[in-house]
Each structure stands twice: as structure tokens, then as C-alpha cells.
Design goal:
single chain; 13 helices; alpha/beta; Rossmann fold
């Protein structure tokens, strides 16, 4: 019998160690981003999308997308102190901080990076403080960096309306959710990778549709349903509940409720 707990781990909500799954939406986004960076002047780039659509995973794979020609500096959460942030940029270049005033550190960072192709990616950028927004504006105006700010779509309007951003050249890139066939292909691929061949057939017969109806193609929600469902199946085996030891529409619904995706 398959190891349900091990299969559940495949669908844990994490960024590190997750294989990049390219959908039509991410392929379009990748091509648009690469074209912009290759052909336009350095400017502010905003990556927006609903929570759970895969922005963080996309950012984690920027080095493989751009290759060795670009330096990627990624921050998983925004720094709230401009001094700490600019000091971090300097140190990531391998240099020591020469001076300790913010203005002098900005000058040093610009001098270090101005002749390199550097993309600074900041996840959860909707949490940026006003001081950090102003610092990013200054660094962006220097044309020493590309900034790629990822944020939730429903919160992007507020930060994009900030005068530091709205009055300057910028581009908004949108990450869409998966379509049904992509959701189905993703589930099948992961199950086959785990050796769960019998279950892959069950999902191809209709369970993928049930999951898609609930997740609407959201990557995180799709994984959440699958993770909770296989954990339930693992528990059913340990407690001898035969009814819940195989994938079913009932288990999909129960997993969605347990994950807070459906109300009861």
C-alpha cells in the first residue's frame, strides 16, 4: 500500500525544494519579464496575482530563468528598516560597508551595482513601509538596479498609487491561476512521481475536476486539498476506517473544509 503520509508531503505549502511547474500563465509571464529586462531601460517591475497563485515559487526560480547573465538578489520578506536593507545589498556584493550614513551607503551600493545586470526581487511587497518605498524609489532612479516587487493583486492598487511609483516608469506583470487541464496534469505528474499509479487513474476520472471546482486553479489551494486528503487517508488506515482509505469526492470535500476552502 502506498505511503499516504509521504504523498501528502509532496503537496505541503512551501517554496524551497518545490519543482518549478510551468503553466501557460507562468510561461507568458516569464517571456514578458525576460523581454522587458532585455529590451527596456531599468525600471520598477510589479508582479501581481491572487494569494497562492505561485508568485513566491516563480521568484525562487528567477536564477534559472535568467541564467548566469543576471545577478538575482531575492528577499522573501520586506525589510522595514532602510539602513538594514541597503547594508544587506552592499554585503551581498562581497563588499564591506564603507560608511554608515544612509546617504553614503546608497552612493556605495549604486557604485557597486551600476555596471552589473542586477534584479532585486522582493516578495510580499505590499508590506513595504513608506520609508522603504522611498528608498526603492531612490535606488530605482539611479538606474543601477531592476526592482521586481511581488504583491497580492487586491492590495496592489494602493501601493501602485504611491507617488514614488505611479509617477515613474514601471511595468505591471500579472500572474494568473492554472487552467483545468494544467491542474489535472500537475496532479497526475506529482502522483506518478510518487509511484501512486492507481490513484493517478482515480484522479483522471473526475477527482481533478472536483478539486479544480474548489481551487479555481489556485496553486496553493490545489496543494492544500491534496495534502489534507492524503493525511486523512493516512489517518484512516491507522484507525481502520476503510471508507476513507481511497481517494473520493467525499474526501476532497472534507479536505477542502478542513483547509478552510469550503464553509459548512
Amino acid at each position: 500500500m502506498a505511503d499516504y503520509a509521504a504523498i501528502a508531503k509532496l503537496f505541503e505549502d512551501r517554496v524551497d525544494g518545490v519543482e518549478y511547474y510551468e503553466t501557460r500563465a507562468t510561461l507568458k509571464l516569464k517571456n514578458e519579464l525576460f523581454f522587458t529586462v532585455e529590451n527596456e531601460t531599468r525600471q520598477l517591475l510589479f508582479l501581481v496575482g491572487v494569494p497562492g497563485c505561485g508568485k513566491s515559487v516563480f521568484l525562487s526560480h528567477l536564477p534559472s530563468i535568467f541564467g548566469e547573465g543576471y545577478r538575482i538578489i531575492k528577499y522573501d520578506t520586506p525589510f522595514f528598516d532602510p539602513v538594514d536593507f541597503i547594508r544587506s545589498l552592499i554585503q551581498k556584493s562581497g563588499h564591506e560597508v564603507a560608511e554608515y550614513s544612509l546617504e553614503e551607503m546608497i552612493h556605495q551600493a549604486v557604485q557597486i551595482y551600476k555596471d552589473s545586470d542586477t534584479i532585486v526581487a522582493i516578495d510580499e511587497a505590499q508590506l513595504l513601509s513608506k520609508e522603504m518605498i522611498e528608498l526603492i524609489r531612490i535606488l530605482s532612479d539611479s538606474k543601477a538596479f531592476w526592482f521586481l516587487l511581488a504583491m497580492h493583486k487586491h492590495e496592489s492598487k494602493k501601493i501602485l498609487s504611491e507617488p514614488q511609483f505611479s509617477s515613474r516608469p514601471h511595468r505591471v506583470l500579472t500572474m494568473d491561476t492554472m487552467e483545468f487541464d494544467e491542474t489535472s496534469e500537475y496532479i497526475s505528474k506529482e502522483l506518478l512521481k510518487a509511484g501512486a499509479f492507481v490513484f493517478e487513474k482515480e484522479f483522471s476520472k473526475g477527482l481533478s475536476k472536483e478539486i479544480y471546482k474548489i481551487s479555481k486553479g489556485n496553486f496553493r489551494d490545489t496543494k492544500k486539498i491534496l495534502n489534507r486528503m492524503f493525511l486523512m487517508m493516512d489517518y484512516a488506515i491507522k484507525t481502520h476506517h476503510k471508507k476513507y482509505q481511497k481517494p473520493s469526492r467525499c474526501l476532497v470535500t472534507m479536505a477542502a473544509i478542513d483547509g478552510g476552502l469550503l464553509d459548512i
